[in-house]
Design brief:
The complex is a heterotrimer of chains A (163), B (376) and C (177). Chain A is α/β, with parallel strands linked by helices and 163 residues long. Chain A has three helices and seven strands, in the order H-E-E-H-E-E-E-E-H-E. Chain A is elongated, with a radius of gyration of 18 Å. Chain C is an alpha/beta fold. In chain C, helix 4 links the parallel strand 2 and strand 3. The chains are: A alpha/beta (163), B alpha+beta (376), C alpha/beta (177).
């Protein structure tokens, strides 16, 4: 694994000015703004030694916090996870898609869209992957109520969602 | 003879591609996985994976259960290797709350975890051969698995969905005389595995159906984020037990098998090799486990400080990650499972074109996916 | 029978009389006879959904051996099967397919709801995507509790189904006042 701050430094020249990148070495995290996400992730790809394992979203009052989990196999010592954190606006949850850079992001982004409602721009095929195609709402959002009345799935006309 | 005329006639034939659904109800999809295949004759032109038929909303349910109440759910993710799922969740909880696990518990975790890995790999090899219609071999491996399940039942009380590895350690100590019985079962396992190996691995039909089929190169596997035995069969040595050791794995002497063909046969054979390594681990752990408590004291009403933790575990299918976010209450604010099978199936649409349907079945079987952890 | 004439009814007394005369004969209706045969040869459709499927496979394995009852012939196609074992959680996405597969099975057909999820949604009953029991969409003959039920429990379910086939009255619903 490599130190998060050093990774940020190494990325610096590639990113150029105007890209804010914060590093937290102890938590092994890089924080980046949504608009710079694709650039930073592209930079990680060029650095080499990373594997994208997971994209995870948390619904916070301030917005949707996404964590891109990379396995850092470079450098010395044991492999470890490097997390790239990015926030998507609650009102307009948009982020650039990175599936053209990191192939495993295809299914991972679809899952985040399906369950959390974050839209990834610049890609095709952003469709539901886990819920039914006619499902209404994004279940992992905090305003999606879990209790639901008994119903036959066959009789489900598209009444509004539960949220 | 009009050979050339026949060829011309064939070229003049109009053919049509058609769409075929493989699954979600299918004996060979290992669960409710659906592949929408576009076929030209028997050859796949394109493949689309459609999942979600087992989506139970477990991540949402986690937010309305306490941390301890959710622990039994974790075995239902990857139900073939439930103990390893529970281990990952326990690691995340321990990281979140700063809980230390007693030494004996770590050894017991290795014992049960590796026994579970053996059971899981046995299901994989047996399912793979039965997909290729070798029913006897399936019986052999399943019966071998019964011996392992007996051991697990002795320790945990359950054959499946063990609920044994919990935050702070494990729930029970080993029963009296367990070591002797385990040694006997592992000896029997070796002889059954040898039978299975002799029956299957050199079989001409099996080799014809798996050698050179569904080749996933090392670079492709890395690009698609594959982990676990699948990538180790493609020549990339990536195993958390060695590369980022947790628990007491550093104290044991074991190898991580590596094959380089990346075809279905290698993905099958590497699991046989891994079973042998797991047997070594269980034997060593049984011999070396120190006396002591098996569980740290964790309060019944556990309120970890607000924060988050991400912990990883080398599951039978790859690297499993658990993300736990706490808001200071008794229930998780967010629980997320990073599932290796979910990422592993991403590569199927890429390697399928050009395969025939039967090759696809063989490849899918060799990927060893479990829909419980894909769909959650 | 000794009185001559033709009767539609055959009583136990008649059977005893015949047996006393050394004639062993069984009387039945065509339905009952066929049901007896069916009960000894249920062909399940391979329909494992989740964890219970693994215990179902173990029940078909060498140790628990469904074969000794005649039930080991799992058919991939519903058109060749007469028993559907819902082994696992029925989700909203899967429900139309369960229904369609059930419709594709030729009658007479039976359903075993194996496991807590198939009976009532199990631990996932309050989820947004889980069917609270598969009997919401198809009729169920036998419920097997467990999470997962042991293979022996599944075999017990088969045997109960077998008994139900031979004597449907045992499965009467009782209304408690």
């Amino acid at each position: 694994m490599r130190d998060a701050a050093l990774i940020a430094e190494a990325l610096g020249p590639e990113l150029g000015g105007g890209v804010g990148l914060e590093a937290d070495s102890s938590a092994r995290e890089l924080s980046v703004a949504g608009r710079d996400l694709a650039t930073v992730l592209s930079g990680l790809k060029s650095l080499g030694g990373f594997v994208l394992l997971d994209i995870d979203a948390v619904d916070r009052p301030e917005g949707f916090d996404l964590s891109y989990r990379f396995l850092d196999r470079g450098g010395e010592g044991p492999v470890a996870v490097l997390t790239v954190k990015v926030r998507a606006d609650r009102g307009r949850p948009l982020l650039p898609s990175v599936m053209h850079i990191w192939k495993s992001a295809d299914v991972l982004e679809r899952e985040v869209w399906d369950l959390m409602g974050v839209v990834f721009e610049g890609r095709t095929g952003l469709t539901r992957i886990l819920c039914r195609d006619d499902f209404v709402g994004h279940p992992l959002r905090k305003d999606f109520a879990l209790e639901r009345p008994d119903r036959f799935p066959e009789a489900a006309e598209s009444e509004g969602g539960r949220a | 003879m009009s050979d050339s005329t026949t060829v011309e006639q064939e070229d003049a034939l109009e053919t049509q591609e058609y769409t075929l659904n493989l699954g979600p109800q299918h004996p060979s999809t290992h669960g409710v996985y659906r592949a929408r295949l576009r076929l030209n004759g028997e050859t796949i032109v394109s493949c689309e994976s459609i999942i979600g038929y087992l989506h139970r909303g477990m991540e949402k349910l986690a937010e309305s259960r306490t941390y301890a109440q959710f622990a039994p759910y974790t075995s239902r993710f990857d139900y073939l290797a439930g103990a390893l799922n529970s281990w990952g969740y326990a690691l995340a909880m321990e990281k979140l709350g700063g809980i230390e696990v007693p030494e004996r518990a770590e050894y017991l975790r290795v014992i049960v975890g590796e026994l579970q890995r053996i059971a899981s790999h046995l299901v994989m090899v047996s399912s793979m051969v039965i997909d290729l219609n070798a029913v006897t071999a399936w019986m052999y491996a399943f019966t071998a698995r019964e011996g392992i399940l007996d051991l697990l039942e002795e320790v945990t009380g359950s054959r499946m969905n063990l609920n044994y590895i919990v935050a702070g350690g494990v729930t029970e100590d080993l029963p009296e005389g367990f070591t002797a019985r385990a040694e006997k079962t592992l000896d029997e396992l070796k002889s059954r595995l040898d039978d299975f190996d002799r029956l299957v691995s050199g079989n001409e039909i099996f080799l014809g159906r798996t050698r050179g089929i569904g080749v996933i190169g090392r670079d492709l596997a890395l690009e698609y984020g594959m982990t676990g035995p699948n990538i180790r069969a493609s020549g990339e040595r990536l195993d958390l037990r060695k590369d980022a050791p947790y628990s007491v794995y550093p104290r044991f002497d074991f190898e991580v098998p590596l094959l380089s063909g990346g075809d279905s046969f290698d993905r099958y054979y590497i699991r046989l090799l891994e079973i042998h390594e797991s047997v070594k681990l269980v034997r060593q752990a049984l011999g070396a486990a120190p006396a002591g408590p098996v569980r740290a004291k964790v309060p019944r009403v556990w309120k970890p400080a607000p924060g988050e933790a991400y912990a990883q575990c080398e599951s039978a299918r790859g690297i499993q990650g658990y993300h736990l976010v706490s808001d200071g209450s008794v229930k998780p604010y967010r629980m997320h499972l990073c599932s290796p099978s979910f990422v592993n199936i991403g590569v199927l649409p890429v390697i399928s074109p050009g395969l025939t349907i039967q090759d696809f079945v063989s490849t899918l079987a060799s990927m060893d996916i479990v829909l419980g952890e894909i769909d959650r | 029978m000794a009185q001559g004439g033709f009767r539609m009814e055959v009583t136990d007394k008649d059977v005893e009389e015949l047996a006393a005369n050394g004639i062993d004969v069984a009387f039945s209706t065509v339905e009952k006879a066929l049901d007896f045969c069916r009960s000894n040869s249920l062909w399940p459709v391979t329909f494992g959904l989740a964890c219970c499927a693994i215990e179902m496979m173990a029940a078909g394995g060498a140790r628990y051996d469904l074969s000794r009852f005649g039930f080991e012939v799992f058919r991939p196609s519903p058109r060749q099967a007469d028993l559907m074992i819902i082994a696992g959680t029925a989700t909203d996405k899967m429900a139309p397919l369960i229904s369609r597969l059930y419709d594709q099975m030729p009658g007479p057909k039976y359903v075993i709801a194996m496991g807590s999820c198939a009976i009532c949604g199990g631990p996932f009953a309050d989820s947004y995507s889980v069917l609270r029991g598969v009997d919401k969409i198809i009729p169920v003959d036998v419920y097997v509790p467990g999470c997962p039920p042991r293979p022996e429990a599944l075999i017990d379910a088969f045997l109960k189904l077998r008994a139900k086939l031979r004597k449907p009255e045992i499965a009467e619903a009782k209304l408690h006042a």
